[in-house]
Amino acid sequence: MSADVIRFAGVCKRYPMGDTLVNALVDATFTIREGDFVSILGPSGSGKSTLMHLLGFLDSPTSGEILFEDRPIAEISADQRARIRAEKIGFVFQAFNLLPRMDVFTNTRLPLTYHPKPPADAAARIWNALELVDMKNRAHHRPGQLSGGQRQRVAIARALVNEPRILLADEPTGNLDSRTAATILDLFTELNRQGRTIVLVTHDPKIAAYSRRQIHVMDGRIVRVEA
Amino acid sequence: MRGRKRERVEAQEMNLFSGIINGLGEIWAHKLRSFLTMLCVMLGVMSMVVTTGFVEGMFSSWSTSLDEQGGVEKISGMPRGVEKRQEPFRVLSPGLTLEDEQALRRLLPDLAHISPELDVTVTFQRRGKSHTGRLQGVMNDVFAINRYDVESGRKFVDLDLADRADVIVLGTEVADALFEKNEPVVGAWIEVDRRPMRVIGVLKHYESFYDDFNVLHWKNKIAFVPVTTLQYKLKPGSTLSWLNMKAVDLSKVGELVDAATNILGHRHRGIRDFEVKTNEERLASFSRTKASFYFFAAGIAGISLLVSGIGIMNLMLASINERVREIGIRKALGATGRNIFSQFVAEAVALSLFGGILGVGVAVGVIMTLKATLPPGLSPLLSGSAFVVGFTFSVVVGIIAGIYPAMQASKLDPIDALRYE
C-alpha cells in the first residue's frame, strides 16, 4: 500500500452569498495516494473548483479535516502552507496563468524562487522540465508568442520544476482544441506512468477517462469514489 | 550543514536578484507612467540639493567675512538713538568719545585691545587722480582687532596720535587708485579732502575667493589715519563712530560687556545713547538665520518629496490593481505574503532610487549652470551632504510610499486573485 498524500475527512465548505450560506462542499471524504491519477468529475457549479482550492490549501475548510502527508493543515500557518505549495505542489490552470512579461525560462523558474530550500541544480531542473514538455527551444520566448498548447506545456513544466509530491490540474485542456488537449493528456498519462501523483479536475467524462480512477461530484457532494 | 547554509544564501540572492529584475521589468513595461513618477522624485531631490546648495553658498561667504571682522571675542560699543523719555536730556551726554576709550582702557584690564574708530567718507587726490572712499581714524589696536597687516612701511606710533600727525596708511585698492604700478607709495604725499598727508604704510592685499568673488575686497578699500588727526583736524568736533574691543579670553566676554555698559552709562550721565554688542550675538543671529533658511529649504524640498511619495503610492496602487492575477498566480506557486510584500516594496524603491539618481544628476547640472551664469557671491555650492540627504530621502520615500500598496497586495486572497479577469 502506498503512502497517503492528501486525505479529506468530512470536509465542508460554506460561502456566504448575500444573506444565505451556500454549501459549496458537503462532507467530502477521500484519499489521494502516492502514484494516483485521480480525476474529479462534475458539471460546472458542482464544487470541483472549491475542492481544487482546498487541495492546494488556497482555501480552508469550514469544517472537517484535511491532512497533507498525515499532517492536519489546520495546524500549519499560512506562510508554512505557502512554503509547502512551493516545495511539494504543482498547479496547472485552465487559463495557463503564465506571467506575460517574463520569458518561458523565467516563468518556469518561478516556483523555485519561492522554494524554501532551492536546489543547487536549479538551472538544470528548469531545462529538464522544459525538455520533458518539449519546450526547450522556446525558452526565451514570451507567453504571448506561443500557442495555447505550448503555453499549457510551459505551465506544466513550471508545475513540475519543483518535483512536487502532487500535481493539481484544473481543467487543463479547457482552453485547448481537442487534438492539442489529447497531447496534453498523453503527457499527464506519461508523467503518472513515471510515478507522479496527479489530480485532474474536469467536467468532461472523456477527459476523466484518461485517469486511473474518478471521483464524481454533484451539487457539492461526492456521489461516487472509485477505488 | 555547510551545504545547507550555502543553499540558503543562494535562495536569498535569487529572490533579491529576481526581485530587482522584476521591478525594473515592471518600470520598463509602463515606461510613461514610471517616467512621470520618477520625474516627481527627480524634481523633489533636485530642488532639495539645489536649495541646500544656495543656502550653503550664501553662508559660506558670510562666515568667512565674520571671521575676518574680529571673531567671537570682539565686543563693540555703538552709538544709537535714545529712548523717547530720555530725548530731552540727550544733550547731557557727550557721546562716544576718546575719553570713553581712555576710561575703558584704564578700568578694564581684561580687554586685550580697545580701538576707537571714526568712520567717514573722503576724497583722496594725487596728481590729478581722485578717489572717493572710506577713511577711518584709528589707533594701532585696529590692526589687531580687525586683522589688518601692514605690508610695507609702518603702523602709527604714539607720537602720531599725540601730535595729530598728518600720516596715512592705505589699503591696496586706494593705493592702486592714486599711484601708478611702480611708483613708490610709502613716503609719498597725497591730499585727503584737500589736506596734505604723508603715506607711511600700505596694508596687505586681502583675497579670499569664493568662486570669482573676493569676499574680503572691503578690507582693501580702507585707509587709516590717527583718530586724533581725523577728530581734530579733518572732521573737527565729530564723535566716535564706534569702539571696538577684544577680550583676552572668550569666557570674559559676558563680564566685559556688563562692565563696559556700566562705565559708558556712567560717563554718559545715564543717557543710553550707546549699545554694547558682541560678535557672538551676530554669530548667534547668523546661526539662527542659517537654521531658518535651512528649514525653509527643507520645507520646499520636503513638500516636493511628499508629492513624489504620493505619486509613487498612486502608481503602485494602480499597478497592483492591474496585477491582481499575477499576485494570485505567485501565491498559488508558493509565494508567502512576505514575498509579495517585499516584491512591491522593492519595485517602489527601484522607482524612487532611479528618480533620486536622476535628480542628483540634474541638480549637479543646474548648480553648474547657475554658477556659470549668476553673479559671484550668489551662486550655490555643490555640497556632498545635500546629495547624501537627497538620496537617502528618495529611498525612504520609496519605502514609505511602497509599504501601504505592498501590504494591500500581500493580503490579497489567492482565490479571488486567480478568479480576477
Question: How does this model look, in words?
Answer:
- The complex is a heterodimer of chains A (227) and B (421).
- Chain A is α/β, with parallel strands linked by helices.
- Chain A has a single domain, classed as 3-Layer(aba) Sandwich (Rossmann fold), CATH 3.40.50.
- Chain A has seven helices and ten strands.
- In chain A, the strands form two sheets. Chain A has a six-stranded mixed β-sheet, sandwiched between helices. Chain A has a four-stranded antiparallel β-sheet with strand order 2-1-4-5, covered by helices on one side.
- In chain A, a hairpin with a 2-residue loop joins strand 4 and strand 5 (71-72).
- The relative contact order of chain A is 0.20.
- With 421 residues, chain B is of the alpha+beta class.
- Chain B has two domains: 2-65 and 286-419, no CATH class; 74-278, no CATH class.
- Helix content of chain B is 58%, strand content 17%.
- Chain B has 14 helices and twelve strands.
- Chain B has helices at residues 2-29, 31-67, 98-107, 141-145, 158-163, 172-178, 217-220, 227-234, 253-267, 279-322, 324-332, 337-373, 384-411, 414-419; strands spanning 74-79, 111-126, 129-138, 150-153, 167-170, 189-192, 195-203, 209-210, 213-214, 223-226, 242-247, 274-278.
- In chain B, strand 2 and strand 3 (129-138) form a beta hairpin.
- In chain B, helix 2 packs antiparallel against helix 10 and helix 12 packs antiparallel against helix 13.
- Chain B is elongated and about 105 Å long.
- Chain A binds chain B through residues 53, 56, 58-59, 78-79, 82-87, 89, 91, 93, 97, 99, 101-102, 106, 109-120, 122, 158, 162, and chain B through 3-4, 6-8, 10-11, 14-15, 18, 22, 25-26, 29, 325-326, 328-339, 414-415, 418.
